[in-house]
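Whiteboard transcription, Tuesday session. T.W. wrote the structure tokens on the left side:
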């Protein structure tokens, strides 16, 4: 059975995974048996081994020491603890940087970074590549048929610390990458607009990565370098993947852990190359909305492979060690935030790390087993979550069916946030999350979709920010509208093409007909500047709203104004518009939350899409649904301080654990999570 045909993303596990990174090489062997015993107590069924073991597996170049890993894996097999085996290539040992300094990455100012931390490799270094592949070959051939190994973990968080390298090897690799994209130098000169500032290239060898320059480097050069860098890292992944695939049984899936809204890797491209998506998530405890970002990131991970369940590869049980101040997670948050990820498609909850280290840079990062051992609140919470996830086994493999999608693209994100824009204060993620939040509050299932993806699967397309778009992506949005989808497009979208060349003739050039408007001028607002808007509010009366960050001088052709600017130079001109016949809205400013929610609701209602519960959930309640062929599961997560009664949709609902009778409504205590299920088919 191949991994992709099974509803279970880890075919040899077939239940929700629970466990984390286990680093036995940091500990004397006596501890290993204790670890296994405690793992059994906590229902741990999946551990990741070897992520940072390179120096222990290959202490000097070409000399391998696998005996310790043999023993650890045999112990896991005996205890029936499954292993996600890493290729150990994330942190080259000191010998590599010492013998081959050219493997070390170089910054845009020409500084070569040193070894002594981790991830100090240039993705274009042939020496690093050869050693990484050789180590992977050794590991894969030795352990591919080991009973304990159920999946493969390639490298670790590619690009987390050194997403780009500006060295000479990288320059050469960048040129080769460009030569595949451009038939000749003229085409590159044209795409990069090198007629500007005398930047025209006369020879391929003149092309270099965008190193530190006196003024803004060429924007398309920067953009292509970001694309190249994502591809260069991806090349490292696929090289190791191919080595494993050649020797491993096909029901042992291969993954590398993502970092959800990570700005440097285009995960749409990456996800195509791996068997399953896995991801690391470390919420910022100082952000009161981190649970909303937590939901959005999980939805993105689920969407990357068309709704396939994914694995939360890493999270902290409690404190981390790498922000300024690192308090423990508030009581209850560990469970609720873990279940939130399951609610949104995760089929494993794994952690960094199993046992908290006592030395090294991460000794103040929590582990499932804290420094104080099992007599702790953390340990109790771990044991209780392990048991709860075991009882949630029926959810494994279940999918989410969403009729609403947010269009999201890394290339556009990169282009938006380059220098030399009308405003460098715009943040792709802030805009996207502000839209996501409004739909999340209303209890809808939400997917993310690439602009050139299957847009026709959705009844509502939300395009919060898509600064640049290809012709194909632009057309797909029009096609989706032609097929009846509601479309809402946000400010400064469709402004440029994939080369960051302006689409002239009034903005947003590709969608003027769809939206029934054209924009004469972009008018970004200063940071502390808010504009008043006037329009029909929720109850149909003239009401007020505000806009910040941005405004635009809009001309109407076939659209109606929904809100107009009420002060400033744009007074009386449209701020939010609707093309009635196309069900297409345009939002030219960052709306206040309530008004944004109102507009998005309007678009969703127009498309005939109901919230999961059939009605909006009480404030603070997050609602998700996952379905198998036989069963539907609704997760109700209460993020508020008050208990809430939630009305369930029609159906024969029961609580998943405990033995409740048939439920019409359910009480969700403050900070708690309730899962209900039904076998009556839901559409
Ligand atoms: C991740 C990394 C882990 C560990 C963790 C600490 O980025 O993959 O190895 O460092 O952060 O939060």
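and on the right, the sequence the group agreed on:
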């Amino acid at each position: 059975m191949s991994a992709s045909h099974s509803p279970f993303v880890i075919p040899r596990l077939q239940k929700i995974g629970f466990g984390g990174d286990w680093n036995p090489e940091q500990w004397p062997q006596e501890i290993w048996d204790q670890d296994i015993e405690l793992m059994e107590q906590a229902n741990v069924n999946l551990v990741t081994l070897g992520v940072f073991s390179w120096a222990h597996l290959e202490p000097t170049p070409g000399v391998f020491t696998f005996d310790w890993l043999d023993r650890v894996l045999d112990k896991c097999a005996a205890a029936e603890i499954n292993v996600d085996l890493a290729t150990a290539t994330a942190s080259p040992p000191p010998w590599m940087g010492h013998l081959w300094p050219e493997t070390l990455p170089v910054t845009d100012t020409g500084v070569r970074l040193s070894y002594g931390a981790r991830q100090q490799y240039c993705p274009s270094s042939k020496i690093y590549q050869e050693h990484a592949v050789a180590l992977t070959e050794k590991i894969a051939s030795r352990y591919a048929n080991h009973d304990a190994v159920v999946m493969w973990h390639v490298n670790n968080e590619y690009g987390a610390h050194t997403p780009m390298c500006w060295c000479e090897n990288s320059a050469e690799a960048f040129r080769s990458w460009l030569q595949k994209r451009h038939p000749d130098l003229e085409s590159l000169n044209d795409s990069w607009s090198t007629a500007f500032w005398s930047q025209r290239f006369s020879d391929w060898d003149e092309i270099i990565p965008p190193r530190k320059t006196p003024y803004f480097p060429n924007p398309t050069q920067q953009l292509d370098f970001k694309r190249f860098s994502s591809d260069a890292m991806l090349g490292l992944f696929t090289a190791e993947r191919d080595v494993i695939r050649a020797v491993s049984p096909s029901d042992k899936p291969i993954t590398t852990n993502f970092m959800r809204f990570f700005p440097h890797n285009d995960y749409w491209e990456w996800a195509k190359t791996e068997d399953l998506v896995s991801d690391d998530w470390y919420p910022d405890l100082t952000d009161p909305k981190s649970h909303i970002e937590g939901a959005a990131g999980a939805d993105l991970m689920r969407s990357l492979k068309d709704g396939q369940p994914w694995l939360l590869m890493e999270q902290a049980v409690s404190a981390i060690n790498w922000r300024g101040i690192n308090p423990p997670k508030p009581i209850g948050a560990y469970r609720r935030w873990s279940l939130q990820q399951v609610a949104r498609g995760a089929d494993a909850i794994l952690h960094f790390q199993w046992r908290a280290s006592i030395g090294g840079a991460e000794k103040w990062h929590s582990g499932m087993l804290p420094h104080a051992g099992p007599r702790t609140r953390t340990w109790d919470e771990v044991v209780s979550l392990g048991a709860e996830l075991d009882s949630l086994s029926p959810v494994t493999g279940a999918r989410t069916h969403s009729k609403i999608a947010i269009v999201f693209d890394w290339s556009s994100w990169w282009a938006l946030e380059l220098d030399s824009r009308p405003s460098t204060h715009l943040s792709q993620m802030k805009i996207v999350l502000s839209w996501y939040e409004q739909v999340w509050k209303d209890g809808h299932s939400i997917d993310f979709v690439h602009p050139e993806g299957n847009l026709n699967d959705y009844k509502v397309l939300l395009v919060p920010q898509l600064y640049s778009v290809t012709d194909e992506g632009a057309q797909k949005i029009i096609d989706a509208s032609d097929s009846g989808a509601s479309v809402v497009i946000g400010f400064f979208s469709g402004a440029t093409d994939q080369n960051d060349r302006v689409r002239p003739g009034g903005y947003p050039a590709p969608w003027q007909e769809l939206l029934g408007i054209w924009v004469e001028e972009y008018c970004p607002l200063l940071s502390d500047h808010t504009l008043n808007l006037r329009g029909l509010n929720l109850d149909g009366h003239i009401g007020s709203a505000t806009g910040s960050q941005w405004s635009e001088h809009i001309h109407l052709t076939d659209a109606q104004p929904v809100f107009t600017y009420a002060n400033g130079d744009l007074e009386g001109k449209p701020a939010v518009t609707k093309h009635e016949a196309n069900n297409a809205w345009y939002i030219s400013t960052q709306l206040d939350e309530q008004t944004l929610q109102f507009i998005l609701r309007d678009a969703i209602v127009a498309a005939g899409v109901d919230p999961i519960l059939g009605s909006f959930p009480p404030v603070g309640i997050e609602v998700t649904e996952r379905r198998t062929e036989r069963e539907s599961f609704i997760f109700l997560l209460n993020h508020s301080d008050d208990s809430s009664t939630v009305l369930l949709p029609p159906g024969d609902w029961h609580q998943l654990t405990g033995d409740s009778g048939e439920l019409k409504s359910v009480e969700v205590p403050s900070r708690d999570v309730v899962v209900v299920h039904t076998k009556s088919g839901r559409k």
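Someone added at the bottom: Residues 532 and 567 are 6 Å apart (CA to CA).
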